[in-house]
Amino acid sequence: MFPGARYVALLAVAVALWGHGNYVGRVACEHKQQEQLIKAQQELFKAADEASREELKRLEVERERDAMSQQLEDAAYAEAPSTDCGLPASRVLRLDQR
Q1: Between vectors from CA 9 to CA 7 and to CA 12, what angle results, nearest 5°?
Q2: CA 90 to chain centre
Q3: Are 76 and 87 in contact (CB under 8 A)?
Q4: Res 94: pLDDT
Q5: Cα dist from 82 to 87, 89, 97, whole Å
Q6: 3-state secondary structure the chain
Q7: What's the predicted TM-score (pTM) here?
Q8: C-beta separation of 90 from 80 below 8 A
Q9: Of 1, 45, 46, 68, which is the most exposed, with the fewest CB atoms less than 10 Å away?
């Protein structure tokens, strides 16, 4: 053997240990990032579900409001004019109350 063989062997072991440590560290980092990504996606899905529920509630309230508005409009059109001059007295009284 040549005189620097021990140093070459020690250097080879050091490089192998460094490479192994680098690989293990990279895999651990990727695993941690994957866990963080999954957690962030779960939070995002929960927020999206909550937003969907809130939107459904808002649409339900809007639909009820539109139905009530339509009922009031239908009731107003159902009241026939009582005179030839136009509006019935009840409509005029309602306008005066505003």
Answers
A1: 110
A2: 49
A3: no
A4: 58
A5: 8, 8, 20
A6: CCCCHHHHHHHHHHHHHHHHHHHHHHHHHHHHHHHHHHHHHHHHHHHHHHHHHHHHHHHHHHHHHHHHHHHHHHHHHHCCCCCCCCCCHHHHHHHHHC
A7: 0.52
A8: no
A9: 1
Residue pLDDT, tens place only, 29-79: 999 999 999 999 999 999 999 999 999 999 999 999 999 888 877 777 676
Q: Given the structure tokens 């140093």, which residue do they identify?
A: 7
Contact residues for 91 (Cβ-Cβ < 8 A; gap 6+): 76, 79
**Per the structure block, which two tokens stand in for 63?**
């639909």
* Tokens of residue 74, six digits: 């239908």
CB 85 within 8 A of CB 94: no
Note the pLDDT of residue 46. 97
Cα separation of 36 and 28, whole Å?
A: 12
